[in-house]
Amino acid sequence: MARFTLPRDLYHGKGAMEALKTFQGKKAMICVGGGSMKRFGFLDKAVAYLKEAGMEVRLFEGIEPDPSVETVMKGAQAMLEFEPDWIIAMGGGSPIDAAKAMWIKYEYPDITFEEMCKVFGIPQLRKKAKFCAISSTSGTATEVTAFSIITDYQKGIKYPIADFEITPDVAIVDPDLAETMPKKLVAHTGMDAMTHAIEAYVSTANCNYTDPLAIFAIKMIENDLVASYNGDMEKRDAMHDAQCLAGMAFSNALLGIVHSMAHKTGAAFADYGAHIIHGAANAMYLPKVIAFNAKDPTALKRYGQIVDYMEICDKTASDEEKVKALIAYLRKMNDELNIPHCIKNYGADSYPCEQGFVPENVFLERLHDIAVNAIGDACTGSNPRQPSVEEMEKLLKCCYYDTEVDF
Ligand SMILES: NC(=O)c1ccc[n+]([C@@H]2O[C@H](COP(=O)([O-])OP(=O)(O)OC[C@H]3O[C@@H](n4cnc5c(N)ncnc54)[C@H](O)[C@@H]3O)[C@@H](O)[C@H]2O)c1
Ligand SMILES: [Zn+2]
Is residue 92 located within the same domain as residue 206? Predict the structure, then answer.
C-alpha cells in the first residue's frame, strides 16, 4: 500500500492570499523571515485579512535562512505562550520549514529534536492548531510537502523532518509574492524545483499519481525558468505553479541523493564564511547524479522518458544518448542562470569563480564524514542506485572538481 497526501485546500492564482479572510479560528500566529514579506507589504495584508476573519494575530519574526534548532525552540515557546489555533507560515522554505517544526514542538512540548527527525515518526498533530503555508519563493514547495529542513549548526548538518503529519492543511500559492524575488533567488529556487521533479520521477517510490505531476513540472520549468530569471513576469507566475507541482510529486515519491548530498554539504563549510545554497548545490550535483544513476536500467529508461517529454533529443536516439542530452541541457541551464558547475568554482556569493570559498584541502579532509552523512540522509533510500561510501566519496569529488562520473 502506498499513501498520497496533499493539503486539504490549495488556493492559487494572483490575489489568492485573500483566502485568509475565510479562515475560521480565534488566534493566528504568523511566522515570517527576516523582512522581505514586511518590506513588500505582504505581511500587513495577511494580518489585515486574518483580522477581517475575526482573529487575534501575533507575529513571530526574524526566522533566518536555513533555520536552526534554536530558532525552532524559540518559536515553539512563543506558540505555547500565545496558544494559536492557526499557524500561518509565510515566506520562503526557511520560515515555513521552521514553523512546521515549531508546530510539532507546540503540540508536543516534551518532544526532542532527535525524536522529530525519526522518519515518519511524528505523533498526530492538529490537536492545538492547523497550519497554512504561503510560499514566496518558487522552489522548495514546502507549502505542500511533508518535509521540513532544520540545521544543527553545532554539527554543521541539515536534518530533514519527514512525515505526512506536517503536510500543511492549507497552501496558498499566490504568484504576487514570487514577483519580488531577486534574480539569484529565482535561479536557485528554480533549479531546486527542477531537481525535485527529476528526482521524484526516477525515485524508487514513484507511482502513477506522482509521475504526471513530476513530468509536467519538468516541462514547465524547461519552458519558464530561464525566461523568469530574465524578468518575464508571466513566466515567473507560471514557475510558482510549476515548483508546487514538483512538490506534490516529491512529497509523495520522495527524492534521491542529489538532496542527500546538498543537505550534507550545505552547512559543512559554514566556518569558512558561507553556505552552499540549497538550490545551487542541487544544480551543481544533479548532472553528476544523473550520470551515476543512469547505470541503473530502470533509471536510465526513465531519464529517457524525461528527455522525450522535454523534446531535447531525437526520439530514436539510445537512452544513453538521451541521458547525455539531459546532462548537457541542465549544464546549459546552470550557465544561463549564472550557477557554477562545481564546489571548487562556487564563490562565497554563489557565483562562479576561479577559486571558490571551500578550500580543496578542507574539502578532502571532511569528505569521508560528509559521504557517510549523505548516505545516512533520509533522501538516500529512494534513490535508484544505493552508493557505497567509496562511491559517494567519488561522486562528491566529481562535484568538487567537475570531473566526469564513469562509475
Ligand atoms: N521542506 C521542503 O520540502 C524543502 C525542500 C527543499 C528545500 N528546503 C529548505 O528550504 C530552505 C531554502 O528555502 P528558499 O530557497 O525558499 O529560501 P529562503 O526561505 O531561505 O529565503 C532566502 C532569502 O530570500 C528572501 N526572500 C524570500 N522570498 C522573497 C521574495 N518573494 N522577494 C524577495 N526576497 C525574498 C528571504 O528573506 C531570504 O533572505 C533551505 O533550508 C532548504 O534546505 C525545504
Ligand atoms: Zn530541495
Answer: no
Q: What is the pTM of this model?
A: 0.96
The single-letter code of the amino acid at 302 is: R
Is the CB of residue 251 below 6 angstroms from any atom belonging to ligand 1?
Answer: no
Is residue 4 in some structural domain? Answer: no
Q: How far is the CA of 140 from the centre of ligand 2 (A)?
A: 5
Indicate whether 139 and 95 sit together in one domain. Answer: yes
- Summarize pLDDT for 197-244 with one digit per residue, the tens: 999 999 999 999 999 999 999 999 999 999 999 999 999 999 999 999
- Shared domain for 187 and 172, answered yes or no, is no
**Contact 174 CB / ligand 1 (< 6 Å):** no
**Cα separation, 384 vs 293, whole angstroms:** 6
Largest CA distance in the chain: 63
Domain match, 252 and 342 both? yes
Do 387 and 330 meet the contact criterion of CB atoms below 8 Å apart?
no
Cα(108)–Cα(101) distance, integer angstroms: 11
**Ligand 1 binding pocket includes 350 (Cβ within 6 Å):** no
What is d(CA 263, CA 362) in angstroms, rounded to the nearest whole number? 18
Query: Total structural domains in the chain?
Result: 2
CB of 167 shorter than 6 A to ligand 1: no
User: Atom 32 in ligand 1: which residue has the minimum CA distance?
Assistant: 181
Q: Flag the least confident range among 273-277, 302-306, 394-398.
A: 273-277
Ligand sitting nearest the alpha carbon of 191: 2
CB within 8 Å of 84: residues ≥ 6 apart: 25, 27, 28, 29, 58, 128, 129
Whether residue 147 is found in the same domain as residue 294: no
Answer yes or no: do 126 and 203 share one domain.
no
Angle at 62 between CA 61 and CA 63, to 5 degrees: 105
* Cα(289) to centroid(ligand 1), Å: 23
Which strand ranges, in their side-by-side order, compose the sheet holding 170-173? 9-12, 170-173, 130-135, 86-91, 27-31, 56-60
With a 6 Å cutoff on the Cβ, whether 36 touches ligand 1 is yes
Distance (Å, whole) CA 155 – CA 266: 12
The answer, yes or no, to whether any atom of ligand 1 lies below 6 A from the CB of 75, is no
Closest atom of ligand 1 to 250 CA is: 3
Q: What angle do CA 276, 357, 199 make, to 5 degrees?
A: 25
Residue 89, pLDDT > 90, answer: yes
Q: Considering only CA atoms, which residue is closest to atom 23 of ligand 1?
A: 65
Same domain, 149 and 210: no
Q: What is the mean pLDDT of the chain?
A: 97
